[in-house]
Design goal:
The protein is 35% helix and 30% strand. It is an alpha+beta fold and 254 residues long. The chain is globular, with a radius of gyration of 19 Å. It starts with a helix and ends in an 8-residue tail after the last strand.
């Protein structure tokens, strides 16, 4: 968690302390929720109403249309979750999974090559455009550009599988020299089920271990199936975090 938050801070243009933690802002990518978020560092005494009021005060003053709060304490997040749901906010739980050695799923990492970020971009654009949040080409561009900012700050390396010269599966590896994070795993829908995601993830792990990193982890949606795949590859759950989101109100009629 400290690795991820340090990376997020390096991408912030402004950080504002508040009663329960710090609010991070990036005006270049103002619509990217992960870069514009209230991070709760001290959950004791934090209530749903107090946190929602702080989000309204801080993000509202910044002219942001969304409200987003991240809680790294699993028990505090679970305590707050029903209240945020009651306010109509979206709630998500993510699981941190650490590499503990090969699991029962194997993959041919020889099919994976290291590429530059530009080689991955067409695949990431196609997959992102199909996401529920992709309401415009500008939104997709902003999200992918912001991902590039994070990748650059993390000294990312990029891995991919190609078919007929086209990148069809990709994974990134972030590093601070000791800790490594496997991130942004994606495969085109028509190429899923072929073991490509497994191969790119395991190749990233191999490279992290070869680089003498003493801790390798990834983050998965705790309510979605990919965490089961990662478990079979050798990752085990070690902790959880929560995020709470109030989406921008839909635009009214002209």
């Amino acid at each position: 968690m400290a690795f991820e938050e340090a990376l997020r801070e390096r991408c912030a243009e402004r950080i504002v302390p508040f009663k329960f933690g710090r609010a991070l802002f990036n005006a270049t990518f103002t619509a990217v929720w992960d870069l514009n978020v209230l991070r709760v560092d001290e959950a004791q005494g934090a209530t749903v109403d107090a946190l929602a009021e702080e989000a309204e005060r801080l993000q509202g003053a910044a002219g942001q249309q969304h409200r987003r709060i991240a809680v790294g304490d699993d028990k505090a997040g679970a305590r707050l979750e029903p209240g945020f749901r009651g306010l109509g906010w979206e709630t998500d739980r993510f699981v941190f999974m650490a590499w503990h050695g090969r699991g029962d799923r194997e993959a041919d990492t020889a099919i994976v090559e290291e590429v530059d970020a530009a080689a991955q971009r067409p695949l990431r654009e196609r997959v992102a455009a199909a996401e529920p949040w992709a309401d415009s080409e500008e939104t997709v561009r902003m999200v992918l550009d912001s991902s590039g900012l994070v990748a650059e700050a993390a000294g990312a390396r990029h891995f991919a599988v190609r078919e007929e010269g086209e990148v069809v599966s990709a994974t990134d590896l972030y590093s601070d020299g000791r800790t490594a994070q496997v991130e942004d795993v994606v495969t085109s829908p028509e190429h899923r089920g072929r073991g490509y995601a497994s191969a790119t993830v395991l190749r990233a792990v191999e490279e992290a271990l070869a680089g003498e990193h003493d801790f390798v982890f990834l983050i998965a949606d705790d309510r979605d199936w990919p965490k089961e795949l990662y478990a079979r590859l050798g990752f085990v759950p070690i902790g959880r975090k929560w995020t709470f989101l109030k989406r921008p109100a839909p635009a009214g009629p002209a």
